[in-house]
Amino acid sequence: MVKRAQDWIEVRPEGLYVRAGGFFVDPLRPVAKAVITHGHSDHARGGHAEVIATPETLAIMGLRLGEAAGGTRRPLPLGQRVRIGEVEVWLAPAGHVLGSAQVVLEYAGMRVVVSGDYKRASDPTCQAFEVVVCDVFVTEATFGLPVFRHPPAMAEIDRLLRSVRIFPERCHLIGAYSLGKAQRVIALLRAAGWERPIHLHGALQAMCALYGQYGVALGPLCPATLGSRETRSDLAGEIVIAPPGAIADRWARRLPDPVICLASGWMRVKQRARQRGVELPLVISDHADWDELLRTLDDVRAPEVWVTHGREEALVHAATQKGIRAQALALLGYEEEEG
């Protein structure tokens, strides 16, 4: 008789294994059957024989991984139920990036929700996080420390636009992760009234086009072409978005006196901004902050919480103080994203 989630879900070297269904959630190594929460590379890895995910996540994996994305790709739209082995599985919105989902597992009268990465803040580029009341909640803890309290994203965009007005002779170069962050920053700029073209590093163009295919309107975008001196000077007063790794390389130095910006929850830590040479840190995150993590624990009403990939100890302690049975899963191999 099943009494605990540990009787049918376990941590293996490959990742979180749902033994009653014969599949893994976000496995770190190639497996026979994988359910994937979203398209970031520390969750969506290639080489699986069968991949089950939202249609958007499958498209993202196809774009990023090509044929390595997996053998059989099985789309599972949000809210649609499917039986895998002895487990009923359905996906609920996670509010993280396009197509991101929480994996809801129902077996033997018990409901376990594997949240993947999530945020509670508004984001026009993906469906909002949906609260799913459950018996066990598996939560991330990327920003699981009280110091991480994200300001309103639109307030950070207002700071950016104020800087653009102050320095019309300079280009503003924003480092933003290619999946999710870049598109959210663009959408926020549009909401703030920026109607001019936004210039993109080549590494961002295909993902922004994919977002457009799924109905996310990003407005006029154009390549950040740096060929001639005249073209470079034309970018004065403009906004350019590039992957975080590009803001400090030779490519960036060809821009007209760029104001280096970086959009990340880690920009709350001033030392991180200084280390990366960021002149204008933008605290814009695609993950829940400390207060949102705690609010989510209250909302899902789970008597048991498993914490993974992040600051597990602090969140485990806070959950315990709320009377929740909490433990760290200690899954290995999840990389630190730009946040």
TrEMBL record:
Report the Pfam families cross-referenced here. Lactamase_B (PF00753)
Could you give a GO molecular-function term held by this entry?
Answer: RNA endonuclease activity
Origin: domain of life: Bacteria
Among InterPro entries, the record links this protein to: MBL, Metallo-B-lactamas, RibonucZ/Hydroxyglut_hydro, Xnuc_lig_assoc
Residues forming the Metallo-beta-lactamase domain are 28-161
The protein depicted here goes by the name Putative mRNA 3-end processing factor
Species, as recorded: Arboricoccus pini
